[in-house]
Amino acid sequence: MIEFRAAASEGLSSDAIVVGVGEGRRFDAAGSVLAEKMPWLAVHLDDVEFTGKVGQVVVVPGGDAVPYRNVVFAGLGPAPDLEQVRRAAGGAARSLAKCATVATTLHRSVPAAAEAVGSGFVLGAYTFTRHKTEKKPSAIATVVLIDGTEEEVAAAAIGGLVGDGVNLARDLINEPAMGKSPVALAERAAGIAAEFGLGIRILDEQQIVAERLGGLRGVSLGATNPPRLVELRYEPPGAKAFLAVVGKGIVFDSGGLSLKPADSMETMKTDMSGAAAVFAAIRTIAALGLAVKVVGIAPLTENMPGGSALRPGDVLQARNGKTIEVLNTDAEGRLILADGLSLAAELEPDMILDLATLTGAISIALGEKIAGLFGTEDATASVAAAAAAAGERVWRMPLPDDYRKNIDSDVADMKNTGTRYGGAINAALLLKEFVGDIPWAHLDIAGPARAAEAEHYVPKGGTGFGVRTIVELARRMA
Ligand code: BES
Ligand code: MN
Ligand code: ZN
């Protein structure tokens, strides 16, 4: 955990200083002072073509000229906003992994930036070292806000807390499937519940049958590891609203009998990113003490092709009574979400938000960095606004009624596949059958849940996408 504090620039020394630079190499006051004391700087920045573009980070040794071992210039672009500040802090953190104390003036680069500075540093300093024999975690322990106020330090700490939540989700997502069976993941959730005094209900395989969670049970049939359903409850006194969040928790997606090709399976330990976001967000919301009731529901199972696996053509009955013909066992996310959403709807919350690495098709539509946002008018508007404020990219997608026939089945109420074109829409239309008349938003996070390469505050691998949007949504409802 990174500690945030404030200090005057007079007499300050540190392992590094990070200053933001606007496009066209516009320095802030601290940057100008540094440039004056380091007369070689302008030539160096010319040599490495540093202009202050978004994402540019340059580390210059401070030498004897300044009381900082390293001087970092982070590009903020032509019109800096909170997200550029977050990215600058994250990019700086990633290039200062050996520095313990980092001073910065980034919190002054745009109004109210301190929280973005806090989350940017914590997110950028993330590493997943659990399975390395030689661990090289980031050394950053303290971030000093130069001339920062008490309010700015508090805001940075809140940003850091949200960043810690995202990093928890990243840890869960990056963990190999063999280390996060449904039972093990449910135990992690129980640990969070114990730590924050949250309510928790964990359904085992018998209870899953008794509670008629036919979708979750069906998907679990081919796996040796038994399924679980986790319900985490944060119920503060004086809650102003009630949010239900549902997360897809496929701890490994082999495709089942509709087996995936080997290379498509390589990243399928990340198919529980929705569930990870739900657990991490509730933990963060409880840590912030927000005045909103939040219930998180995560159906957890492997999707495996064992001898008792679901067969193409099988029919399942979900919690709300509706039947689904399973034509492709690799379209398993919607089967377990059918039950998760039914349970959420029964609780009659003000809004249901689900997060799922649901379809490859959404990445065809939007690329790998933007989530698809589906659902009712009111809920999607709230989620879009929260995501924009939190710095997560989502894009509204349609749910046309006349596409419903794409999932008509010959033998059941619906089938779990549709046309290949519009595959993400077909999946969302199936989910819609299980939310009743509750305001509902669905985020298909199959693209942004995972990053193929590191950039700014996003590491390679699990990104923890969705945590910040859920937390921001809860803040706005509280
Ligand atoms: N977990 C996958 C979706 C996915 C694909 C997530 C790539 C992240 C990266 C999901 O369960 C799946 O397999 N969906 C199928 C649905 C199809 C069989 C209708 C898909 O998208 O191909
Ligand atoms: Mn699948
Ligand atoms: Zn899946």
Instruction: Estimate percent helicity.
Output: 25-40%
What class would the helix/strand composition place it in? alpha/beta
CATH architecture of the largest domain: 3-Layer(aba) Sandwich
Distance between the termini: 26 Å
Could you tell me the CATH topology label of the largest domain: Aminopeptidase
Number of strands: 21
Mean pLDDT: 97
Specify the CATH class of the largest domain: Alpha Beta
- Ions and ligands: ligand BES, manganese (II) ion, zinc ion
Radius of gyration, taken over Cα atoms and rounded to an integer in Å: 23 Å
Number of helices: 15
Biggest beta sheet attributes: 9 strands, mixed
Walk me through the topology:
Blueprint: E1 3-7, E2 14-22, E3 26-27, H1 29-37, H2 41-47, E4 57-61, E5 68-77, H3 82-94, E6 101-104, H4 114-124, E7 142-146, H5 150-174, H6 182-196, E8 199-203, H7 205-210, H8 214-220, E9 228-234, E10 242-247, E11 249-253, H9 262-265, H10 273-288, E12 293-303, E13 314-317, E14 323-326, H11 333-346, E15 351-356, H12 361-366, E16 371-375, H13 377-390, E17 394-396, E18 414-415, H14 423-432, E19 440-444, E20 450-451, E21 461-462, H15 467-477
Parallel strand pairs: 1-7, 2-5, 2-6, 6-7, 10-12, 10-15, 11-12, 14-18, 15-19, 16-17
Antiparallel strand pairs: 2-3, 4-5, 8-9, 9-12, 13-14, 16-19, 20-21
Helix pairs in contact: 3-4, 4-5, 5-10, 6-10, 8-11, 10-15, 11-14, 13-15
